[in-house]
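User: two proteins, same treatment. go.

Assistant:
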Amino acid sequence: MRTRDCTGEAGRAGSPLPAAARKRVGAVPVWLRLLCFCLLTSVLGLSASAQYSIDWSTIDGGGGTSTGGVYTVTGTIGQPDAGQMSGGNYTIDGGFWGIIAAVQTEGAPLLSILRTTTNTVAVSWPSPSTEWNLQQNTNTISSLNWSNVTSGVADDGTTKTLIVNPPTGNRFYRLKK
């Protein structure tokens, strides 16, 4: 049986080999080149964008109130990452989020609370409400520890506004005669 070395004949004109068999030895198909290019660029792209990572996390417990008979216990569980954490140009404040809430009093003007673009909170109500005083409380809505807000209220003639920095913990506001 005779064998033919087709490596020498594949590139010559007039070769007895069919056209499909006359390929360069070692030639890589175009689709395989494109596949390799896509894989290479995606791997390089992943390594270039992998500058940030979250390599640990915690699930902190919530809190609540438990009541039985004449006893009441209020508490929170788990705060290992409470406080400020930073690295490089980034800073994060960990812990439970506080709330700033409006408590609507029956018959009082509408009290609104909005976050500003400077990450503060604006507590506002209509200006022609001279008989109503803004009060705040850091405990609970039903607490008796309400106190009048005596400074920091701006009045533009249409709206009265108090700008508040986000507090640690909760803060409630209401209008009271």
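Protein 2:
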Amino acid sequence: MNYEGHLIVGPGSLCAFLLAADIAGFAPVPAPVTLAAGLGMAALGSIAVDIDHLGAFISSAAPIRLFKVGIRLLVFISIPAIITIASSRRVNLMEPKQLFQAELFRLLAVVTIGAAGLFALSRLVQVFFIHRGPIHSPAFFVGVTMVVTFLLALFVPKWWWMGLTFGWGWFTHLAADGLTPRGVPLFWPLTSEKYNLLPGCLLAPVRILTVSLSALSIILLVMRYLGVF
């Protein structure tokens, strides 16, 4: 399955659970920030699995685009400070210290450095792991979810639960790939053999149905949130 499909299934399946919980009266739809954070982490988890693939969106297109955009925006917002320095402060538009202390500059710097780091990490991962190898196994999913949740609990305790939604996205990626002919290594590290979740004749219909229902769940949750029903 391509990354667009994973980006629909990860957040979409989570939307289905949230919608069902709200309709059943177990829990209301989360507040906007919480909802966006949870769905965002589920989306990230759903494409992060393919970091072991050279041509994957998460390994190439995403970090390269983010890096280019980050650099351009950093240069753009730095223009006043650059003019100040170039004119020997005869034209004092912004002191460099002000620029470095600006939240937007710091955020863009983090995004840009993070994009470069993601690109480098993907290349390192691909040295040790083949595509649809250990990273696509349930065992790896459990380990990654625990590590991400622990790190979030350590550094941003309020948002520790986002590690679980990240893990959910990771899990849906494995399930979706299990609905493709190539399958996934369900029992790694015991064996690297790949398995499908269903008989071959059902793979394509169930895969299409899964993506369709996930997309529908996103639409219905938005409608529910807006009070349409």
